[in-house]
Amino acid sequence: MPKPLSLSFDPIQRADDLWRQRWGAVPAMAAITSVMRAQQILLSEVDTVVKPYGLTFARYEALVLLTFSRAGELPMSKIGERLMVHPTSVTNTVDRLVKAGLVAKRPNPNDGRGTLASITEKGREVCDAATRDLMEMDFGLGVYDEQGCADIFTLFKPLRVAAGDFKDE
């Protein structure tokens, strides 16, 4: 898909100026709009890289999580907890990975009602290949240096703590 023509002005800055004129200064409006636009840009770039592997970024994240686990498998509930998504989303994601032969599911022997998802050898190969491609394009953040990426991480940490993602030390 071709990139749209660039505007001759920053539309978020323009919206912020107009907002200020109408309702007063609310820096959070320009900030949230910038964050949402950045998310659109990054998701589009990352999804373009993982699409040839039959993945979305959500499916890629699930594969990576499974490769990080000691046995290459995790309970579905743990996947949802770690990826911070609703159980229905986990089921949908894992079922699509199963259909593609990248993940297998089996009953959890430690939980009669639970299900374990485990990465297959094909899943490991796809995950490794997609990871190489994503690293090559710096996960879409190539316009930032190492410090810039660290700054982004630090900037959003208080928001994630406030949302209850984890307890900060």
Architecture overview:
The chain is mainly alpha-helical and 169 residues long. It is 61% helix and 8% strand. It is built from seven helices and three strands. The protein has helices at residues 11-23, 27-50, 57-68, 76-83, 87-99, 121-136, 146-162, and strands at 73-75, 103-107, 115-119. Strands 1-3-2 form a three-stranded antiparallel sheet. α3 (57-68) crosses α5 (87-99). The chain is globular and about 60 Å long. The relative contact order is 0.10.
SSE order and pairing:
Elements: H1 11-23, H2 27-50, H3 57-68, E1 73-75, H4 76-83, H5 87-99, E2 103-107, E3 115-119, H6 121-136, H7 146-162
Antiparallel strand pairs: 1-3, 2-3
Helix pairs in contact: 1-2, 3-5, 3-6, 4-5
